[in-house]
Each structure stands twice: as C-alpha cells, then as structure tokens.
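Q: How would the structure tokens look for this protein?
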Amino acid sequence: MNKNYFEIIRAGINSTFQDLGRNHLYHIGIPFSGAMDNRNYLLANKLTGNNHNHPVIEFAYQGPHLKYHGSPINIAITGDVSFEIKKGDNLIDGKCYQSFILENNDELDIISTNKSVYGYLAISGKFDLKFQWSSCSTNTKANIGSNNGKKLSNNQKINIKEINQNFMNTKLNYVNTKIENIRVIKGTNFDYFSEEGKKIFFKNEFKVSKLSDRMGMRLEGKKIENIVETNIRSEGLIKGVIQVTADGFPIIMLSDHGTIGGYPKIGVVISADYDKLVQLTPGSRVKFQEVDLNSAETLFKLYDLETQSLISKI
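A: Here is the predicted structure in token form.
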C-alpha cells in the first residue's frame, strides 16, 4: 500500500479531480472539461509549487473531509472557502490563498464555500491518477477521466505517488469579487429573436436556477421570444454559449457541456467573465451586457495579464 495517502471521511458535494482539460476532441463528442474557475485553479497550484497543469481536487459548495497519512506535505485551498485543519487536539482555522503543512494523521475538513460554488485543493506532490486523452479531468456525465470518471466517495483512499519538498510558507492577498453584468457577444442565431426578446435579454435581470451544474447554468426570468424557429439542426457548441430553450429561457453551456445542440444561440459569454460566472450560486441575479469581438479579446488579454500578475506575486 502507498505510504502517502488521503483517507476520505466525507467526500463532499461534487468533488472531482480536474486540470486544464483536454483539447481537440470535440469531433468525437468529448468536451473540454477541466477546472471551472481557471484563475483559482492556477493560483492553487502556484501556492504549492506545482506547474500550471497539475491535477487538483475541485469541490462544489461543500468540500471533502480528509485524513492524511504519510510524510509531511504542503496544501493550499483557493476560492471563497471555510476549512479547518485538526492537528491532534489543536484546531486551526484555515485561510484561503495560503499554504499549510499536513503531517501524519492530520485532518483537513473543507466545510463549505461562502456565497460561491467552486473551490480548489492542491498538494505539493502528485496524486496517483490515470490520465485519459492527456488529462485527468473528470466528466461524471460521460464517466470520462480519473477515478473511473466518477466523483470522490466516502471511505475512498487517494494515493499520492510523489511529494515535492516544497515547505515554504506561501501566501497571496486576494479577494474574489462578484459579477453582476455578464458581458457577451452576439450569438450566431441572434436574429432569431424578436426586438422585444433582444431587449429583454439585455435589459432584464435573470436569476440563476437550482438546475445548474458543471454541464450548464439555467436561468429564470422573463421569456425571450423566438420569431423564427425554437429548434434548429444540431450545431457545434462551445463553453459559454447561451442557448434559448423552447420555453424561452436561457441556458449557458459550461465546462462539461454537450458538444452539439439544437437550441438557437443568442450570445456567448466572453472568456474574461467565465471564471466569475461559474461561481454564481442559485438565486444570484445577473444581467447581460453586449460587447463586440475586439473588446472581448482585449478584455481577455487584460484578465489573463491580471492572473499572471497574481501568480508572479506568490
């Protein structure tokens, strides 16, 4: 048996292994997958001294409660997360964006995310995982990726095949900010919708539905009128595209989305807003704001530069 491993006391909600995802497989129906919040994923890895595409544990709402067995290891958690570390009789309140050392028999209890959805646990080492198409990312809808394509489960053991001796205390002063105006570019079927429907899309508020997961985010609000056809011949989809279903409500395709779909596409969320979009909890209110393609490209470059600047500070 591997001498370094985590014992899962409680698996949490939708806890999976993720990295940056898998490329060039849309033609066989395999989506990109990967970490939902790319910035927080990258920061978690940098805090533990890993390269940028190192597998981490992504969790939603409630994270796993883990007991560690083995040699000392550094860990870091990113997002807006409450967690505790139990060292014998001592209980330590964890802080996000800061590294901590776990020793043999220490327990890590990731209690919950705070008014957000996703958090990330990185270790200064390598989980013992099987890769599929050059990625460990787990897509539970298709049973693709590490852990046999499934969520982590209670009483499971997570083996660690290598520990990096990176025990420096790293820390980053960073606060996640919320987003209310989601910037979008027009979709390929924008003109399928009436002028009143377009006005509703850009002027009215929508509420994030409970029917949201890694595959898609359903929104509730005033119906968007389609004046051409509510169903079209299935076409390719991309992450962030906004379809309007036959009942008139938007659904945003997220990281584990299907690769084709037959609902008209009214818009696409710009890449610069995607990380904050996926952190919106059910009940959150959002509005859409139109930008053109050149602006979307510039905004992404600025967001990427900001991310790299944060990484460089660790």
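The CA atoms of residues 140 and 292 lie 35 Å apart.

Residues 5-163 form one domain.

Upvote if useful.
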